[in-house]
Amino acid sequence: MKRLPKVLTSFLLSTVLLSSAWADEAYLPNPATAQMDQAPLVEIRNAKRVFPGILSGGQPTDDQLAKAKSSGFKTIINLRPVSETQGESEAITVRGLGMNYINIPVAGAGGVTSENSQVLIDALADTDQYPVMVHCASGNRVGALFAVDAALRGRLPVEDAIVIGKQAGMTGLESVARNRIGLIGEAQSKCQSTHSELSVAASSEC
Asked: Does residue 19 belong to any structural domain of this protein?
């Protein structure tokens, strides 16, 4: 039996290991992307490729958007409000390049909510629209929303969710993300407790 060349063997091994790494992740924004490759690298500010098919980071320039198109990106998700970016110029540029454009206005710390994290996850649901670039000004808000989602929808421990958020670009919003996760977690616990008490009461009446 012929042996495969060392270069080909190394390539095949690295491909298998990469696929396994994605598949074993405790949290993915879209589990259906587990077997996807990394998104192409475009050198936006604080560029991160933590999840398969997703590049996150800060504000891209027009040249970087053009590079994204030529690299195969299909969707650009912008978390900056229109008021923060002086108009719709990015939307016009992205659509002019033939890519999908989605704006989810996350207005600073106040926009780091479970509602906005869910809107982001919904926007990442269609695997036919990958690779995807998700950005804000620096990547901070992107990472914070992923942290919130990892804790609340992904059911990860808070510290694990915070690590994921940092890996995806979160910096100064860590305390905000922790607070959101804690408050929403407490509300969910109270709700579950109330439902349990109601169920017990209903059973005792029967």
From this structure: no
Which strands form 132-135's sheet, in the order they lie side by side?
A: 54-57, 132-135, 75-78, 100-103
SS3 assignment, position 110: helix
DSSP notation for 41-63: P---TT-B--STTEEEESPPPHH
- Is residue 45 situated within a structural domain? yes
Query: What is the CATH number for 86?
Result: 3.90.190.10
Q: Is residue 20 part of a domain?
A: no
Contact at 8 Å (CB) between 106 and 145? yes
Number of separate domains in the chain? 1
Whole-model pTM: value is 0.78
Taking only the tens place, the pLDDT of each residue in 124-175 is: 999 999 999 999 999 999 999 999 999 999 999 999 999 999 999 999 999 9
Summarised one tens digit per residue, pLDDT across range 10-57 is 433 344 334 334 434 689 999 999 999 999 999 999 999 999 999 999
The answer to whether residue 166 is domain-embedded is: yes
Q: Going by DSSP bridges, is the β-strand pair 100-103/75-78 parallel, antiparallel, or unpaired? A: parallel
Give me the domain span that covers residue 68.
Answer: 27-201
